[in-house]
Amino acid sequence: MKIRDILAQGKPTLSFEVFPPKTEDNYNTVEKAAKEIAKLKPAFMSVTYGAGGGTSDYTVGIASDIKEYGVTPLAHLTCVSSTREKVQGVLKELKAHGIENVLALRGDIPENGQTPKVYHYASELIREIKQSGDFCIGAACYPEGHVESANKSVDMDYLKQKVEAGCDFVTTQMFFDNSILYSYLYRIREKGITVPVIAGIMPVTNAKQIKRITQMSGTYLPSRFMSIVDRFGDHPAAMKQAGIAYATDQIIDLIANGVNGIHIYSMNKPDVAGKIKENLSEILGNEYTCTP
Ligand code: FAD
Question: How far apart are CA 132 and CA 210, in angstroms?
């Protein structure tokens, strides 16, 4: 099924993300985790794509496993380190496996700055995918601005280019303060970007994740969140419980405020995905209207 049709149903949806193995040896471990997460019957499951393209074979493999488990897969695809032949090869494979949804990304520029200089921005990839078949295309967006952007306004202009190039929905970078998303939604709607926005939520279940998150994306960490890390960071089980509760709280607030698409950066952790699903068991799947 195409994700745009799932989102058009107007109900809160929960989706999960997995990342593929780096080597064949770990394939079974990731496949097992994906299978466990698929048992939770999410609206869809996404599979990330290694920045250098090295894990691309496994992205298609895990995405087609997910399809076999009866869940709609979303395969990520990055372009900046890739060639046209490689991109066309992956799209051909996706078609052969009946995978209809692609998240089109530029990918991070490698540290040495060396790229084949075929693709420069995700919008070029979106255009190419659009011409290459009947895919439902998603893209990334950044409520706090992309790290390379001069400012949020310019970043939104480029987001508009991606939507005009043919993307059907966008998924946000993780954020820990919902008010950042609400003001972003207001501003992108003002700019005429009307595609569905799926909120990306990261349940932080160990303190080590925090360093990676801030280095990677410069995401703002509110004091309410930092108190949790300060207090529970050295107690793994407590940190995990508090991290799941924080993510659940964020999600309930988002759904209560009309944000229906919720995507969990579940990091191949079926137990974390399961707890969040359980916490929302009565909230998901209903259609809500606003009562005055
Ligand atoms: P773009 O949309 O191309 O934007 C990159 C930068 O260029 C931005 O600063 C933008 O403002 C600017 N820009 C865009 N168009 C133009 C233009 N025409 N002229 C000048 N500047 C322009 N990475 C992976 O390697 N694998 C994954 O699977 C993966 N999944 C992700 C999923 C989500 C939901 C998100 C939010 C990110 C993901 N990433 C992934 C990370 C992503 O690849 C990086 O954030 C990357 O640096 C930017 O990718 P993009 O597709 O947003 O790029």
Answer: 39
**Contact between residue 203 and residue 264 where contact means Cβ atoms under 8 Å apart:** yes
Per-residue pLDDT tens listing for the chain (292 residues) = 999 999 999 999 999 999 999 899 999 999 999 999 999 999 999 999 986 555 677 999 999 999 999 999 999 999 999 999 999 999 999 999 999 999 999 999 998 999 999 999 999 999 999 999 999 999 999 999 999 999 999 999 999 999 999 999 999 999 999 999 999 999 999 999 999 999 999 999 998 888 778 777 789 999 999 999 999 999 999 999 999 999 999 999 999 999 999 999 999 999 999 999 999 999 998 888 776 6
Q: Which residue is closest in CA terms to ligand 1's atom 15?
A: 158
The finding on whether 78 has its CB within 6 A of some atom of ligand 1 is yes
Instruction: Determine if ligand 1 sits within 6 Å of the CB of residue 145.
Output: no
Whether 17 sits among the annotated catalytic residues: the reply is yes
Q: What is the pTM of this model?
A: 0.97
Q: Which CATH number fits domain 3-285: 3.20.20.220, 1.10.150.320, 3.40.640.10, 1.10.10.60?
A: 3.20.20.220
| For the chain, domain boundaries | 3-285
Strands 73-78 and 45-47: parallel
Q: How many CB atoms lie within 10 A of CB 158?
A: 15
Locate 34 and state its tokens: 């994906």
